[in-house]
Amino acid sequence: xxxxxxxxxxxxxxxxxxxxxxxxxxxxxxxTEQINIxxxxxxxxxxxxxxxxxxxxxxxxxxxQLYTEDGALMPPNMPIATGRxxxxxxxxxxxxxxxxxxxxxxxxxxxxASGDMALDRGTYRLGEDTGKYVVVWRKVGREWKATADIFxxxxxxx
Length: 158
Known about the structure:
Blueprint: H1 3-23, H2 29-32, H3 37-56, H4 60-64, E1 67-74, E2 81-82, H5 84-95, E3 102-111, E4 117-126, E5 129-140, E6 143-153
Parallel strand pairs: 1-6
Antiparallel strand pairs: 1-2, 3-4, 4-5, 5-6
């Protein structure tokens, strides 16, 4: 191989390496950052625990703030409640039911690789009733907010 060809190969290799270095440089840091899925999952589990505490204190206004502004609550045998004011009203109404005692816990939390959406699937107990639920969470700024919440009873016709 001649010196000329060796020089061309070295220059081409240097150019390729420089291009690779730029692709992973600071301007593309957001692309290469890894989402801490376990931490995001724990945050959602913490939100669920806080939600149960707010139910115990019967704070419908604070519960409504756990939802996105355009969130949807889909309780059984009721029309869909869309938006925080409607969600607050449904929660307030449910919590006025005599003997209302709701607890729930996630069985599974799946966080999207992008870190901006998650699914929380679990079970609940409401007095003598048991059932299941699904909450779809969306990351709004730095906070996880419920964007869709649906639940139903395990009892036939419930």
